[in-house]
């Protein structure tokens, strides 16, 4: 005991005596600090990301077909949607997986992407008008519908005037011959009272004239890509705790419908001017100034110049109201709405807050703020796996978000859809369809001609020498040809239909999410399921959530590898430096060691002395590094690290990361430091024990 | 030396003189005439209705097949394609009115305007493959020489789209049978010069038309090879043609909608 105390005293006395010790100490300090803080940060990201991903889409485990070409990637792969083979029916899979004692729920899933196409404003207005006339034709006219028709007609007439004004502006810049006379004539005709007076005589013919001649002259239609996950929405809402409805309502059980992601709804479907104003306000509140920030200036300039989107939406009455309201707000006498809008939207740091309020209070009530309103039906066009283009109408019930991932573009790109609509858009080839195709193909009598020898096969020596034949006139009756499924009737019924749980589950899925009762047993459950004969018979692949989300899941693992790579290199350097430094120190202390040995110190004493000195050095500086690291982490755990970019939102699982320190990190750091210190001192310490008193004395002389 | 040059010159001159009458190079007027013949033969004075079969092959996908009714009123530049089979596709269709190509799907009850480059029903075919031939009107030809295509002698023409005319491909090359003046092969290029599609027309048929008081010609089989996605190809087979007059209001959205009600 006394020896130990003595050795400790020596160790502490030598601690700050040499500059070499200070350098070694500094390096140890830095290495431990890095192990503690880096480890804690990565553990925190890992844990918050796992909470986000598990609780939003992936569940603890995912199961999908082993026949899949690609690996499952729930948030989309590098090149679009991964090629995952379809599982014919969900029911047997569910039954097999639920047998495992740790599986709580199995949720069916499938992800895909498609297009939403929308015509331009004129197209959309005319489509609404056509719908009303169709209803009139079917059900007879009502006063309410008449009022709607008149308002839409006035709107179209105004659009015609706006388009003509545009054309006049253009014609000042272009040569006469670049104008299409048919377009000019159509615009002239739409301006006449006679056209509108006769409109109702043949409404469908008048509509076709407008659709074919007027609408193509407006050019603001666009295509929008939409990603969606088809699932049993009822079961999904119960199983994924991070999902929360923001606006509207959940899709009623068993019905077709969609919940749009709030992020997608705001980002892609909102009136662009309004969205830019939202972003400006948010940035301004975050301390950014329009006067200094080029991006904010660009948004202001886009709002100022792109006023057509608003103007085209307004019918004459609303346009008049908007003009009056803007005149009042701006105290202006200007009569032209586009100029008023331009002035109004030219915001600066001083008036942004007031203009934002005014925009929402005065203008928004006159406008459609979103391209698709909740309660509307959205038409989605998918190019199916079987090659047939599939259009499906899906009602939009509301918007939702994954809590903590509100601003993440990755999580925000996922919209939720009922499984029945998903299956239709996927275009799964049923046995019936396959047979129908085979029959048509056989009936055609066509032989395949490969591209490589097409010319030879079609025109070579083997080919018939006459190319022309007399045909027999055919009598084609389309009514015999078309085996209509009563599509129009079906379309209405489909949206009202309630599908039973069995119908929802008894069909194709791409994957299934597993929620575990005890998530801490994830690894063992994964291994057990992978070995389970039922899973193997059904040719399924079982993966953890980390693998199921593709590249993102690997991100933390990659970061950990990088950190440990740095730590290993650092410690190898530390090892070499300590080794060298202690070696030098030992050589300097040959006399001291010799004297000690001469007055009776044992070799073990010398060995312990040198080892203990390094251990003390490691513990003091390592302790300080670990202490500072823990201090920093607990401070950050208190105030949080803000997610500065939207991508970080996903990794931080919310606006801030609150890192925490685990005992594991602390112990790892401690063991590493002590271990490396001892290891690197072993050889110099061993050399020191070899010093004989005689040699020591001689050296000194 | 002069002794050897002179016979060579004479031989060259003789070759040129002898070759000239056999070369069938077409001048501008002849080319225009040829295109007009091609167009005119396929045109009908009255209406035209055909039953077509379309088969699409794509890499790693099951074949898709369809049957469609194609309606034309050449005098008014109108075209309609109405799909009849398989059941899932029945009632879908395309309608060309003026410069608009509309697509309709009864499953959703919506009309959408499409471009000239629309892949008809997702196949490698385009609107022009079904429509009246308007080569002389839409393109300016240049002669590229006489070639052999298998056992047939053909004129090779290069066609450049006239300005202001919206066509799917601005440059096309045609291989026209010298004996029958039928197109046997067609290649279409993008503005960049990239080859997009190769088409073969191995079988032509003709049919007497009362309204035209002449024969109407049509390619019974069109084989289309996608030159961008090399594994993709489409075959169009015209199964029968009916030249009786169509209903007056047939080329309207309302008529196409009514077929799937």
UniProtKB/TrEMBL annotation, chain A:
Domain ABC3 transporter permease C-terminal: 566-693
Keywords recorded for this protein, A-Z: Cell membrane, Membrane, Transmembrane, Transmembrane helix
Subcellular location: Cell membrane
Membrane disposition: Multi-pass membrane protein
Residue ranges crossing the lipid bilayer per the database entry: 20-42, 561-583, 604-637, 657-683
Superkingdom of the source species: Bacteria
UniProt xrefs under InterPro entries: ABC3_permease_C, Lipoprotein-release_system
Xref: Pfam families: FtsX
Major subcellular location class: membrane
Protein name (record): FtsX-like permease family protein
Family: Belongs to the ABC-4 integral membrane protein family. LolC/E subfamily.
């Amino acid at each position: 005991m006394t020896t130990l105390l003595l050795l400790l005293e020596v160790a502490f006395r030598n601690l700050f005596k040499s500059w070499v010790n200070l350098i070694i100490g500094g390096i140890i300090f830095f290495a431990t600090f890095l192990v503690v803080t880096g480890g804690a940060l990565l553990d925190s990201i890992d844990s918050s990301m796992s909470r986000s991903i598990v609780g939003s889409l992936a569940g603890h485990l995912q199961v999908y077909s082993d026949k899949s070409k690609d690996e499952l990637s729930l948030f989309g792969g590098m090149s679009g949607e991964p090629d995952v083979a379809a599982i014919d029916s969900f029911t047997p899979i569910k039954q097999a997986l639920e047998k495992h004692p740790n599986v709580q729920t199995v949720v069916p899933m499938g992800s895909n992407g498609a297009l939403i196409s929308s015509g331009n404003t004129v197209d959309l207005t005319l489509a609404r008008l056509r719908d009303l006339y169709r209803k009139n034709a079917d059900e007879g006219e009502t006063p309410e519908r008449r009022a709607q028709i008149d308002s839409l007609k006035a709107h179209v007439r105004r659009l015609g005037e706006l388009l003509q004004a545009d054309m006049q502006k253009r014609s000042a810049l272009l040569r006469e011959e670049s104008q299409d006379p048919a377009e000019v004539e159509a615009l002239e005709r739409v301006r006449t009272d006679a056209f509108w007076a006769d409109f109702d005589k043949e409404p469908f013919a008048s509509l076709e004239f407008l659709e074919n001649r007027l609408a193509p002259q407006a050019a603001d239609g666009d295509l929008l890509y939409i990603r969606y996950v088809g699932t049993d929405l009822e079961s999904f809402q119960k199983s994924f705790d991070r999902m929360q409805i923001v606006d509207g309502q959940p899709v009623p059980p068993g019905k077709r419908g969609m919940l749009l992601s709030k992020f997608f709804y705001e980002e892609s479907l909102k009136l662009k001017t309004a969205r830019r104003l939202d972003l400006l306000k948010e940035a301004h509140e975050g301390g950014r100034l329009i006067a200094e920030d080029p991006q904010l200036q660009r948004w202001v300039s886009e709002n100022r110049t792109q006023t057509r989107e608003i103007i085209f939406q307004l019918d004459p009455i609303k346009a008049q109201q908007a003009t009056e309201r803007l005149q009042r707000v701006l105290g202006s006498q200007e009569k032209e709405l586009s100029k008023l809008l331009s002035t109004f939207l030219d915001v600066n740091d001083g008036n942004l807050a007031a203009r934002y309020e005014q925009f929402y209070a005065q203008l928004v009530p006159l406008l459609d703020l979103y391209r698709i309103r909740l309660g509307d039906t959205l038409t989605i066009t998918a190019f199916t796996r079987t090659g047939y283009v599939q259009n499906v109408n899906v009602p939009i019930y509301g918007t939702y978000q994954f809590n903590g991932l509100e601003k993440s573009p990755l999580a925000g790109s996922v919209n939720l859809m009922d499984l029945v609509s998903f299956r239709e858009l996927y275009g799964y080839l049923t046995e019936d369809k396959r047979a129908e195709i085979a029959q048509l193909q056989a009936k055609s009598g066509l032989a395949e001609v490969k591209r490589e020898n097409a010319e030879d096969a079609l025109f070579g020596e083997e080919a018939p020498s006459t190319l022309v034949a007399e045909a027999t006139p055919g009598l084609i009756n389309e009514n015999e040809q078309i085996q209509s499924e009563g599509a129009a009737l079906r379309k209405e019924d489909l949206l009202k239909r309630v599908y039973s749980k069995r119908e929802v589950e008894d069909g194709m899925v791409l994957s299934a999410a597993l929620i575990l009762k005890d998530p801490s047993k994830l690894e063992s459950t994964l291994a057990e399921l992978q070995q389970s004969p039922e899973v193997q018979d059904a040719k399924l692949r079982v993966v953890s959530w980390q693998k199921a989300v593709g590249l993102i899941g690997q991100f933390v693992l990659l970061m950990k590898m990088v950190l440990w790579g740095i730590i290993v290199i650092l410690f190898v350097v530390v090892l070499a430096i300590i080794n060298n430094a202690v070696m030098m120190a030992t050589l300097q202390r040959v006399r001291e060691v010799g004297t000690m040995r001469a007055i009776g110190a044992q070799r073990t004493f010398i060995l312990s002395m040198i080892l203990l000195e390094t251990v003390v050095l490691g513990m003091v500086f390592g302790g300080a590094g670990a202490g500072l690291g823990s201090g920093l982490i607990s401070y950050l755990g208190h105030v949080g690290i803000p997610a500065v970019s939207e991508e970080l939102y996903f990794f931080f699982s919310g606006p801030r990361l609150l890192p925490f320190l685990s005992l594991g990190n602390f112990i790892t750091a401690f063991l590493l430091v002590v271990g490396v210190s001892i290891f690197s001192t072993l050889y110099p310490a061993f050399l020191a024990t070899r010093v004989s008193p005689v040699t020591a004395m001689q050296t000194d002389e | 030396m002069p002794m050897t040059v002179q016979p060579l010159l004479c031989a060259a001159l003789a070759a040129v003189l002898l070759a000239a009458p056999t070369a069938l190079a077409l001048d501008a007027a002849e080319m225009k005439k040829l295109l007009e013949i091609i167009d005119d033969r396929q045109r009908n004075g009255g209406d035209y209705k055909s039953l077509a079969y379309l088969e699409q092959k794509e890499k790693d996908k099951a074949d898709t097949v369809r049957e469609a009714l194609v309606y034309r009123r050449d005098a008014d530049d109108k075209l309609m394609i109405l799909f009849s089979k398989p059941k899932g596709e029945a009632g879908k269709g395309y309608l060309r009115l003026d410069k608009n190509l509309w697509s309709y799907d009864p499953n959703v009850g919506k009309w959408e305007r499409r471009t000239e480059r629309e892949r008809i029903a997702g196949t490698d075919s385009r609107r022009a493959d079904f429509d009246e031939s308007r080569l002389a009107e839409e393109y300016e030809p240049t002669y590229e020489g006489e070639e052999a295509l298998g056992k047939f002698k053909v004129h090779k023409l290069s066609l450049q789209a006239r300005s202001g005319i919206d066509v799917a491909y601005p440059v096309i090359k045609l291989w026209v049978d010298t004996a029958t003046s039928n197109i046997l092969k067609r290649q279409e290029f993008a503005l960049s010069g990239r080859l997009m599609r190769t088409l073969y027309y191995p079988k032509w048929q003709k049919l007497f038309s009362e309204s035209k008081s002449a024969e109407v010609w049509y390619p019974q089989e069109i084989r289309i090879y996608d030159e961008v996605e090399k594994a993709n190809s489409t075959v169009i087979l015209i199964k029968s043609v009916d030249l009786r007059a169509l209903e007056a209001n047939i080329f309207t959205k309302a008529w196409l909608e009514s077929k799937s009600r």
